[in-house]
Amino acid sequence: MNKIAEKTLKSKKILICMHVDPDGDTIGSACGLASALKKLKKDVELYSSSKIPDIYKFLNYAEKVKHKIEKTKKYDALVALDCADSKRIPDFEQLKKQCKIIINVDHHIDNSLFGDINFVKNISSTGEIVYELIKMLKVEINKDIATALFSAIITDTGNFRYSNTSAKVFKIASDLVEKGANPHFISTNIYESKTMAEINILATALNKIKIVFNGKVAYSALTKKEIDKAKAIEENMSSIADFVRTLKGVEIAAFLRETNDGKIKINLRSKNRNVRIIAKELGGGGHTKSAGVIINCSLNKAINTLLKTIKNKWKQL
Amino acid sequence: MNKIAEKTLKSKKILICMHVDPDGDTIGSACGLASALKKLKKDVELYSSSKIPDIYKFLNYAEKVKHKIEKTKKYDALVALDCADSKRIPDFEQLKKQCKIIINVDHHIDNSLFGDINFVKNISSTGEIVYELIKMLKVEINKDIATALFSAIITDTGNFRYSNTSAKVFKIASDLVEKGANPHFISTNIYESKTMAEINILATALNKIKIVFNGKVAYSALTKKEIDKAKAIEENMSSIADFVRTLKGVEIAAFLRETNDGKIKINLRSKNRNVRIIAKELGGGGHTKSAGVIINCSLNKAINTLLKTIKNKWKQL
To answer: Which domain holds residue A216?
Structure first.
């Protein structure tokens, strides 16, 4: 049996940790694993330093996520899900002292292997790895587990559209649907629960798209004023960069906006180029087709820096 | 062996017909079946009364589709794909005279069974039925067939988001990917080949969304002038209604616009209600979650008629 499954089975009190600004993959993986460990009678707690976006509240355990862990608490194991680096868990150094063993489960190619045990594979999603792990633990997948893992997988495959969507991903999806995951119900919650603020900010962003580099790069940049006018908050803007990428011929898409603390957040998306190189160059990270960075300058300066970096690195992307 | 497979195998010269205003299901099914029949050395022609939208031009055979059939030509069989009624093929009465047998392959629940043989099943897509048919014909699925059928299936399942997305659909998708279908390549062509006209008309439509009936119904209505200003054509507007449906709490979404010949085209979408009843009432048709109609009146009159009909029929939907 795999070492990680063995260690998990030996642990009694387990803390499952998500990354900062949690997305569907880290949340779905955490909720799915929590449901599975509960079936093994484990004492499980879920932790996220940031708020869980409303669209994931339908998942079992999502409402039970803790945002603060008392410093006196002790755990047999900390399971980090979907975290390329321990820095993705802001309180990691403190939590590490409270947990006997760190288990690192992730699918990012550049994972820093910060765990005592690392279960890192370069596949579609952490959800797909947790699916494997649950099989290793010999837990029968029920509707709650299936729903959570399905949510994790669709988040990181762009609902079966990205190049990490393998035949195996579809095989797993088929199994999860057989075990009770309802694709329509899940995708309605995740993709069809938009607020008018989300629609308004998307319309604003679409009206401001600029196309450069002979149609190969497109971006939209919004000021704090424009965001406030649409009454939009950060989680309303998570899919705008994906939308910019849907333009024909566009190979790299970017969405930039002023944050509440005066910095510039940039989401990068690509069809076939490696935008992780761009993000890394600017001090950020992520996947080859989806990466991001926050930089400290004006919006116009950020646009210029981004375009210059894309131009300089183009041949390597 | 199934009667339809038997008749197909006996036919030598086959005319494959798509429905008017062809979508990915009818086009993908036609291209996939054509590739399969070619492997059986059949003499195959594809016919569509209307233009094939550019986003499907990547499919093998899509560029070979005929838009006119000479009246002197004779065929052993006409295979109608994804046509609920023979009226969906404008030249059907003439073509019928030129073909020995009519084979009707479709997944619409209200199919009028107009064929000499009807292969009608209430499943995800005509693509899923053609997959079964190709298995019956014992043709090995190659990359071209897999790509075409995958395209058909994603079109009518909303890329695996609608309630017709069964465990079996995912099993078939897995098989098609194994046989060479590339989800990223296909979805980039279909969903990420938007023109600026498409982006502009979407932004215009999003800015005009009206929410009624306590947030349960949302619609957007565009005049011919607004459409012309965005330089949009009919195929640029096919996904706007889907977008309106993404609003949280919205059960029925509608998109109305003035057509070139002064009529009003309405697309209806729902999360859980039956919009086919609304479309039928107004003289149109379609599926329970996706239906449509063209009516002859002013835009304001159309909005009023639509809202009144939804109100009157609400309890049955």
So the answer is: 196-316
